[in-house]
Amino acid sequence: MVEKVTRELEKMQLQEKADIKYKEWLTKKRAEEAEKKKKEKEKEKEREAELLEKRTRSEKIFKEWLQNSRNKPQPALNGYGFPHGKSSGFADRNLYPAPAYCNPIPWKPVHVPPPKEDNVLTMKKSKRPITCQPRASLPMVISEPRSNPCVGSLCRKKL
């Protein structure tokens, strides 16, 4: 009987210790969770503050740009279909704009001299030197653009 009572008493003491340890652990965990939630709320507030600051800064920059864009001069409408800055009355509005850039130096073809062919010695299986005679090539002449159908290109013409 005495042993039985002592066992029950030990069990009760172990159960009380376990309950105390569990309660300590539970309070610790709840404190950690509360701290974690607090940190998350602080981070969220910081993000919102940054977003608000960005919005205000971007709105300010946009307003400045809007003010500056009103003062900028508009491009001249002297393009095709806008003689003297007014529309010439085309209803379809398919008008080409004025060229933005015009090269002041016109393109000129590059003169390419004809290749020079030298007497080339070639060896056959018999190892006898054979000379190759160059063909009579026609001279390269750049014709004037008025008489030349291929303007600006190199054309062969018999002299």
Automatic annotation (TrEMBL):
InterPro entries: CCDC34, CCDC34/181. Residues 6-107 form the Coiled-coil domain. Residues 31-51 are annotated as: Disordered. This is Coiled-coil domain-containing protein.
